[in-house]
Amino acid sequence: MIEISNLTFGYSKKKTLFKNLNLDLQTGHIYGLLGKNGAGKSTLLKNLAGLVFPQEGLCKVNGYDTSKRSPRLLQELFFIPEELHLPAVTASRFAESTGHFYPKFDMNQYYAMLSEFNVPINSFLNKLSFGQQKKVMIAFGLASNTALLIMDEPTNGLDIPSKVQFRKIMASALTEERCMVISTHQVRDLDSLIDSLLVLHQEEVVINRSLDDIAERIQFTNAAQANKEGILYIEHHGIGINTISTNVNGVYTKVDMEMLFNAVVHNHTSIVDILK
Amino acid sequence: MNQIFNLKRFLMLFSKHTAENYKTYLMSAAVLAGMLAVVIGLGAYLSDGKLSFSIQFAVFVNFFLIAGCIFTSMMFSDLGDKKKSIPVLMLPASLFEKYLVAWIYSFVVFQLVMLCCFYSIDYLILNAVKKATEEVKMINVFSTEPRYWLVFVFFAVLHSISLLGAIFFEKMHFIKTAFAFFVFLGFIILISNKMMSSLLDVEIMQSIPLGRLVIKESGKEFLINPPLSSETIVFYASILVIIVLWTGTYFKLKEKEI
């Protein structure tokens, strides 16, 4: 579905954010994209959406070059940026004037999600709070039923109950024909939502694995339960020590994304090597 | 479905643009009409109701060109703002269709609105002053003698420059485009003077590119008018410039990144 080959990109030719980056993403998955501030998460998403053009390489969605921005590509791609601008129309008027650009847009689904998010449909969008605007865009993006849905920091601006609703709605909207890519720096917001993890670090996607794959290869335990010979990373906290170790005995543990992310950004290459 | 132009998709885009901007456009048209009423009314008052063709034409030309350039300069202002540009670029319509909507509003719709506003206000004021003074006729801005219609060609040239400026600059589109235009104009006049001076080896008093030339020799000034054919050349050159700049704007839109 998404095919990135030898992507090199930078806002100036001297300083590149990605060099020869390759990535292959499939439908039927919700990918969580993690990376440090400035690692290029938003820029990678913009490359995927065709909002910026690569210096070298290609970025394709369903076989179409995203930099061409052809209507047949755009009607299967919805991008929710971190910062929004919504026109001075109501949520219902917005759906009427914009929904028909997306062949699979479902008006009932849109209204159902707005209702679940408690967003008034007759208020002017530009007068809503940032969080409410975000909910409108999330509802619209999901109701558009595009093959690819890209979200950049979607939970920014959402309150705690809305984050719970967001996870619930997202999980229900995933189908086998759809691929969702969510970038965030709030790892906990992706808990129980994503099924695959992408970690962007030092100009490369160092991890691109499903959570099941990760759990099959490494385990997340406290020090007492860890595979002592295979400890890859140790993290001290108030009440003890948590570890990441190789999974040799086939015991599946819940992937602690925050810990895994910390290990990667602290250059524990052994973990990256195991997950390659 | 055609990826460059599809009528159904274009109409959807046109109606979306209209739905989201009609309030701003109506307010702008009301402001334009109000300012025309003030200026034409003032002209009628100062001329004791004798609004000559030259006064009417001067008001029309100034409003037409200045308002047209300001309005056109704002057509792509959303693309200068990262937040606003994403929904514009990501909307499933071709870039040609997006360009065409901006072109139709700034070129076709603006001229229609301008003509409607001008003639309505002009008609009302001329009728109001008619009783007090002898009848004054309304100007025909499409007249071929004198050639008032040329203002539409001049507008098209300025429109093409403003439209390119609208996509080229990210902020203060009108000011930056006007500044660039005047710098370019100054440069051309300077070059023209230098070229004429070196070609003719006389003192150049006045040199208008592709226009008349005033030289000074043996203490006497001579006026050299260009041949009639130069007007045709200027006309076709203007058409060429318009087409090149409109096309350039489209390709600049294709290159737009955020």
From TrEMBL, chain A:
Top-rank lineage group of the source organism: Bacteria
PANTHER family: ABC TRANSPORTER ATP-BINDING PROTEIN ALBC-RELATED
Name of this protein: ABC-2 type transport system ATP-binding protein
Record bears the keyword ATP-binding: yes
GO-annotated molecular function: ATP binding; ATP hydrolysis activity
Alphabetical list of InterPro entries matching this protein: AAA+_ATPase, ABC_transporter-like_ATP-bd, ABC_Transporter_VariousFunc, P-loop_NTPase
Domain ABC transporter: 2-227
One Pfam match: ABC_tran
Lineage: Bacteria, Pseudomonadati, Bacteroidota, Sphingobacteriia, Sphingobacteriales
Keywords: ATP-binding, Nucleotide-binding, Transport
From TrEMBL, chain B:
TM spans (from-to): 25-47, 53-79, 100-121, 148-169, 174-192, 233-253
Keyword list, A-Z: Membrane, Transmembrane, Transmembrane helix
Name assigned to this protein: ABC-2 family transporter
Naturally occurring in which organism (per UniProt): Pedobacter nutrimenti
